[in-house]
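pasting for the record
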Amino acid sequence: MSLRSTLSDVFHERTHYDFVGHKKKWFTLSAVVILIGLGAFVTRGLNLGIDFEGGTSWQVTAQGKEVSAAGAREIAEGAGLEGPGVQILGGETIRVEAEESTPQQQQEVRDALAEYAGAQPADVSINDVGPTWGEDISEKAIRALVFFFLAISGYLWLRFEYKMAIAALSAVIHDIFITVSAYALTGWDVTPATVIAFLTILGFSLYDTVVVFDKVDENVAGMAASGRVTYSDVVNRSMNAVLMRSLNTSIVAVLPVLSLLVVGVYLLEADTIKDFGLALFVGLITGAYSSVFIATPFLAILKEREPRYAAIRQKLAGRATAGPEPAYASSPAAGRAGGGRSVDTGAGEEPDGGTPASTAARVPPRPVPTRRPGGAAPRPRQKRRKR
């Protein structure tokens, strides 16, 4: 199948992909990425900003001089700071952050930055963030995340059922691990803007998951109630039906964020939106992936364990093992009952004479002549000739 025909099937919602049947591939891929990220998290940790760990920040606006992040970092390190974080805000404002600094270092960094930016030392603002403030911000972020989980769980439980809520939350936890892995591997700064973006992407992930689950819930009433398809079949059909809608939603959400990163950060050097944009970009892609390849297959696994759907699967598997039933009567008694002709009651088959089964069943059997008492066969009647 060519790429063009595949894209045409996706755009016109004619796909028949087995999402549940390939669940091991999706789970393995996510597990590998998460394990790599957890390894980086254990060995390197997260690069938390001073809002979480405490520290000092210096900020100054350049006065008619061209500044760069590399130049400001060199100046800060020359003043005695170790591993400072440097941002260029709006192309002219320099912001330097460090975890620990003495009052003497603060003055030395202030003087060095003022000279580099062509400003006065009084124009350099210094902001100290204590460890208590950072702990308070961390506790509020965790509290917001827990409240988010409880609210979403309650809504999904009331709207659908608790197993759908479990599957949706598993996708959310998956997104958390993937996003944390991305920040641990890349060393991006974790700031309050990152936490806000983080909660935003979790909401988007659940939105996409709810769209899929709503279609599954709609199809279960019609398909699974007949007993002719398994719950996994219902999930696959529902997912193929909303695949294009899910892709459109994800693409429309990712493109503005991507343009925000490319134009705002790399062209305009507006680093203030980098933390927020990076978290959104990673989270939107991860959320779109988890709603399709994690939440729905996991839901099928949970539902297939119910006695009702397990019985349907065993019933359909038994039919496939037994094979098709015989189309014609083969016993001698059946042949004599039909006057030597086989009578078939199966739909869609044809007897030897070429007559459809539905017609053959309605044809009366040919009468068998009886013998006279003397043993002679009855004479056939002859028509009288008209005189």
